[in-house]
Design brief:
globular; mainly beta; four-stranded antiparallel sheet; Methanol Dehydrogenase, Chain A; 7% helix
């Protein structure tokens, strides 16, 4: 066959592939949804028998809907490998734990490859499944969130939020219940958040404009409410913020308010039930949307105050009410300034409500500092000359106040009160996601797809 004939055949085949892909995309974005991303939203969700996050050790990003990173369980005082399991694809997001297909201890759920979640049995690391009834693009920075009705939610780079049914028996291929398509080309790199009534919150970049969804729980795809673009009808959308990259929506303690950050500069609050605007603040003068860093807000369950890390340091936000209009407002202050150390935050802090301490890493180039700061703004301790970048790497805190933090290919266990090292563990490959605390162990994944269960060997 001549070169020209080969080229014609190849072009035809490529055309068929592109046409098939376009047809699949058009099928899920046909009609009015192409023109209105929020078309079809219905505030009345179908009733569900079981709702809320899974009653597991770590059901969603940073453990809870306030994203404190605080676990009710003990972490490990040893750094032994209890087991190591290789899976396909890079691990770029925090793992979750949830119901086991055969009952028993919480199963580990890992975002990876194109299916896009693996379920790993916790005692010896056997893979329950790494497959679904569908295939898509990579989950990248979206962490799985596990619901009480045995549904796993995760976002992917094909602009979808997936709802995956977790089988009640091992060796069963999990069904994909639905896939919510963001038709304005917005990768879903956010980590879904689950409310106690089962509502799932997720966001998307959506061509830089930003979109935010509240999805009804259950096996039927239904949008409860939607905001697109996130600036709404307010003037000067560009200045008011836009796309969501890697940011997980956080809920107030009473779950009536939802908080998100946009472009590494803005914090906004919405009514968690209706999606209505509440307030919006600009905390940073720079627009950092292209850096792809995780600026998830953290809510203090004791006070309701909100903490966000940006270029200048950690900000504290206090909500209030305008005495003249009765409308909700918010005020902010720079709680702790990292600029004297020439450092910026690219990941959310962790919060230990028991001690009133925020833990966070800040970075310049590949030089970093780790801080422990009281919620009154006082520096308790800091660990300097840490090599690597804290991008997308929030700390986690166990029930005894031990702090675990990953950077580069190293995992630290620190005394939360003093900053002294309990143990330090190096890995053969980079750690690009925060660890997950289970009962007496950590789960941590590497960029080459190794899942490690870290703890004390018998």
């Amino acid at each position: 066959m001549s070169k020209s004939s080969c080229s014609l055949v190849l072009s035809a085949l490529l055309g068929l592939v592109v046409a098939a892909g376009s047809a699949r995309a058009a099928e899920r974005c046909a009609g009015p949804l192409n023109d209105d991303l929020c078309w079809g939203a219905n505030p009345n969700c179908p009733p569900v028998a079981v709702a809320g996050p899974a009653a597991s050790t770590w059901p969603m990003f940073q453990q809870n809907a306030q994203h404190t990173g605080k676990s009710p369980n003990q972490g490990p005082v040893c750094s032994d490998d209890l087991w190591v399991r290789k899976i396909t694809g890079r691990i770029l997001s925090q793992m979750a734990t949830g119901p086991s297909p055969g009952g028993g201890a919480d199963t580990v759920y890992v975002a990876s490859a194109k299916y896009p979640v693996c379920s790993i049995e916790p005692s010896a690391g056997a893979v329950n499944w790494c497959d679904t009834t569908d295939v898509g693009k990579l989950p990248d920075y979206s962490a799985p969130a596990i619901a009480a009705d045995a549904t796993a939610y995760i976002g992917t780079r094909d602009n979808d939020l997936w709802a995956i049914g977790i089988p009640s028996q091992p060796n069963v291929v999990p069904p994909v219940l639905w896939r919510k398509k963001v038709c304005s080309d917005g990768d879903v790199t956010t980590q879904p958040t689950i409310r106690s009534d089962g509502i799932v919150y997720m966001g998307s970049d959506s061509l830089g404009a930003g979109s935010l969804f509240a999805m009804c729980p259950g096996s039927t795809e239904q949008v409860k409410w939607c905001r697109n673009p996130l600036a709404g009808g307010m003037a000067n959308q560009v200045q008011l913020g836009g796309g969501l990259k890697n940011v997980s929506p956080a809920l107030s303690v009473d779950e009536t308010r939802l908080y998100v950050t946009m472009n590494g500069s803005f914090v906004a609050s919405y009514d968690a039930t209706t999606g209505a605007d509440r307030w919006r603040l600009q905390l940073d003068s720079r627009r950092n949307n292209l850096r792809g860093s995780n600026y998830t807000p953290v809510v203090n369950p004791a006070t309701g105050r909100i903490y966000v890390g940006f270029d200048d340091g950690v900000w504290e936000i206090t909500e209030g009410t305008d005495p003249g209009t009765g409308k909700p407002t918010a005020t902010s202050k720079l709680l702790f300034d990292t600029r004297p150390d020439n450092r910026s935050l690219y990941a959310p802090p962790a919060l230990d409500p028991a001690t009133g301490t925020l833990y966070f890493g800040a970075t310049r180039a590949r030089n970093s500092t780790f801080y422990a700061v009281g919620t009154d703004g006082t520096l308790k301790w800091k660990k300097e000359t840490v090599k690597g970048r804290f991008r997308n790497l929030p700390p986690v805190v166990d029930a005894s106040g031990r702090v675990y933090v990953a950077i580069s290919n190293r995992l630290y266990a620190l005394d939360g009160a003093t900053g002294s090292e309990i143990w330090v563990r190096d890995f053969d490959a980079g750690l690009w996601a925060a660890p997950t605390i289970d009962d007496g162990r950590l789960y941590v994944g590497t960029v080459v797809g190794d899942v490690h269960a870290v703890g004390c060997k018998p």
